[in-house]
Amino acid sequence: MQWDGPMKAITVKDTILSLVLGLISIQLIFLHVDAHAHNRLLPTGTLLPRNLLANKVGPCGSPRGATVTYLIAGQQLNVQFEEFIDHPGYYRIAFSPSGDLGFDQNVLADQIPDIQGGTLPRPYSKIVTVPNTPCTNCTIQVIQYMTEVNPPSLYFSCADVVILPQGSVLPPINPGPAPAPSGTPPSPTPGASPAPGSSPKSVECIP
Fold it and tell me: If you count DSSP H runs as helices and E runs as strands, how many of each does the chain have, helices first?
């Protein structure tokens, strides 16, 4: 009987600690969902996305990777993306000539309206003109502007591209797996993986 008091005290402390840790875990889950959510470049579309999901951190949420999309200068490009959590607002498509810089100075399409209601995920597509200047470190960015708050909340999604001069021959298609969120293994893709040190994976986008 003389141990009842201490044992009960320890049990209460353990219970409180478990509740606190549980609440922290729930908050972290919601923070993760909020930071990587709502829309994305379509992984099976004309551009290979840098991240599987859009990020709240601009301009792209992560550094440039090894997977690129090859384009031809001046071609028409159908940018495909989707929304899977509904928000009022609009989208913007922009271009960086190098190093994820200069998006605001190179807007390809703006004020693309967000469609309200209907079935989710909701696909979008917008035809833009690829810039005429070739580049090897360029990026196409899609921003979702969510206007239920002021200033709008933003989500960023990017694709790494290489723009070849007009008349160039596009390299063979070798898209590889779509990128996965941190800590999530990518989906398996048939075929052999490229050897270490090989050239970046690419996808051909036919004008």
Answer: 1, 9
Residue 94 CA to residue 129 CA, distance in Å, equals 11
Q: What is the pLDDT of residue 40?
A: 86
3-state secondary structure of 172: coil
Mean pLDDT of 118-147: 92
Dist. CA 107–CA 93, nearest whole Å: 6
The β-bridge relationship of strands 76-83 and 39-41 is antiparallel
What's the pTM? Answer: 0.67
Q: 18, exposed or middle or buried, with CB in 10 Å at 0-12, 13-18, 19+?
A: exposed
Question: Using CA atoms, how far apart are residues 162 and 6, in angstroms rounded to an integer?
Answer: 68
169-207 pLDDT, tens digit per residue, is 988 765 555 454 444 444 444 444 444 444 444 455 544
Question: Rounded distance, CA 142 to CA 119, Å?
Answer: 21
Close Cβ partners of 12 (under 8 Å, ≥ 6 residues apart): none
> What class, spelled out in words, does domain 36-179 have in CATH?
mainly beta
| Segment 114-120 mean pLDDT | 80
Q: For residue 171, give the DSSP letter.
A: P
Nearest Cα neighbor of 65 from 150, 187, 182 is 182
Residues 6+ apart with CB under 8 A from 26: none
Q: Which residue carries 């490229």 as its tokens?
A: 194
State the DSSP string of 46-83: SS-BSSSS-BSSSSSSS---S-EEEEETT-EEEEEEEE
Domain boundaries, the chain: 36-179
